[in-house]
Each structure stands twice: as structure tokens, then as C-alpha cells.
Amino acid sequence: MSEVLDKRIEKRGNSHPCLVWLGIFAAVLLVAGLLLYSVRGPILRRVGGYLVNTDTTLNKVDVIFVLNGDYNTRPFYAADLYEQRNAPRIAIAQAESSPAEQLGLVENVTDIAVRIMLSDGVPDDDLYILSESHPVTSTFDEAAALRQFMVDHNYDTLILVTSEMHTRRARWIFEKELEGLGINMQVAGAPHARFDASNWWTVEDGLIFVNNEYIKLIFYLIKYR
Fold first, then answer.
1. Which end of the chain is more exposed for a tag (fewer CB within 10 A), N or C?
2. Residue 34's pLDDT is what?
3. Would the pLDDT of 124 be above 80?
4. Is the CB of residue 68 less than 8 Å from the CB of residue 92?
5. Which of 5-9, 68-72, 83-87, 198-202 has the lowest mean pLDDT?
6. Residue 209 to residues 64, 158, 165: CA-CA distances in angstroms?
7. Burial label, 179 (beta-carbon count in 10 A; 0-12, 13-18, 19+)
8. How many of the other CB atoms lie within 10 Å of CB of 44?
9. Phi and psi based region of residue 196 (left: phi greater than 0; alpha: psi -120 to 50; beta: remaining)
10. CATH fourth-level superfamily of 63-196
11. Average pLDDT over residues 5-16
């Protein structure tokens, strides 16, 4: 009887180190989690800030090229640059219409951007719509349309306008597409309406945008490297 009792005690004693190590591991995880939470601001700001790659000063150029997408910010920003005489003209590539747009249920994003810039003071004669016969479906398509436009008009300077946290990927794409033409490109980032690199994780739109932007950046680097 005493031998059985001794074995049970010994077995229980051997289980204590596992419980101790499990407790230590849980405590380390808790401390690490608290530390990461306390410094989340600087880390997340760097995550968002990496996506921003703009020029701090903008010189006068031949053309301002505005990307399709966020028509609540990009065309307004492009029109402001035109008004400040950064360029005598603005160009934008015609985006392919979705099925809903083809049915006339919603308006094409390029058409909206053009209407905004016209209403914001850009004369129709100074607004060029590219690829109307072959509408674009991606940023790479837009870069190809711009390349042809620059060659056709013998332009060698431009300001690329897109959303601020889209500028790193856009710069990489356009530099790759315009390579060999000797074009001097400046990149201007239109501020997002509800977030920026310092607070993107605090709103749903920012979380979605940054997540998608990193996925697209990685995809483009793998596919088009």
C-alpha cells in the first residue's frame, strides 16, 4: 500500500515542472503582447509610411498624369496642381467599364474624374483622355498608355498623381514602364480622405487599403520583377 502511495506522489511531483514551464511560457507571451501593444503606434506608422514614396518639391512639367481610382481625392489634387501652373495639361487613361457601368446604372470612374476636373477649372482643351479605344484595367495598363502618350507628343517630364499610400507601388510600376525614355517623373500623393500613414489602422477603410496595397505590391514584384 505504501509503495503505491509513493508512486502516486512521485507521479504528481514529476508533473509540476511541466505546469511551471507552461505558466512561464504564458507569462512571456502576455508580456510580449503587452510590449507590442504599447509600441504598436510607431510600428504601424512605419508599416503605412513605407507605402508612401512622394517627391517633397514639384517642378513644372509637360503633363500631369492622374491615375484612376479614388475620384474623391486624386482628380481634385490634379486640378489643384494644374491651377498652380505645375503643368499646362492633364492626362488620364480611360478605365474599362464594369457591367453595371455598361448598363448605365453607375458612372465610369474616369468619366467622374474628368467631370470633377472640368468643374474644378481645368479647360477641356487641356484635358487628354488616353486609351479610349482600348480602356485600361490596371495600373500597368495606365503606365503603358502614358508611355505611348509621352512618345507621341515628345514629352519628357511629368507629375504622376495618385493616392498617397499608393505612391510606392505606382512609382515602381511607372519607372519600370517608362524605362529607357529618359523621362523625368515626379510623384505627388493625394491625401486620403479619412486616414493617412499615421492612423490607417484606426479606421476600416485604412485597414482594407493597406492590406490590399501590400498584397498587390508583393504580387507585382513577383510577377513583373
1. N
2. 47
3. yes
4. yes
5. 5-9
6. 24, 26, 9
7. exposed
8. 18
9. beta
10. HUPs (3.40.50.620)
11. 53
Residue 138 is classified by DSSP as S
Q: What is the pLDDT of residues 151-180, one digit of tens each?
A: 999 999 999 999 999 999 999 999 999 999
146's CB contacts (< 8 A; 6+ apart) are 65, 91, 93, 130, 158, 174, 177, 178
Do 200 and 44 contact (CB within 8 A), yes or no?
A: yes
Q: Which three cell numbers stand for residue 127?
A: 484635358
Set of cell numbers at residue 124:
477641356
- Taking the C-alpha atoms of residue 159 and residue 201, their distance in angstroms, rounded to an integer, is 29
Residues forming a β-bridge with 9 = none
Q: How many CB atoms lie within 10 A of CB 11?
A: 9
Element (H, E) at 92: strand 90-93
- Better-predicted residue by pLDDT, 51 or 19: 51
pLDDT at residue number 157: 97
Which H or E element spans position 91?
A: strand 90-93
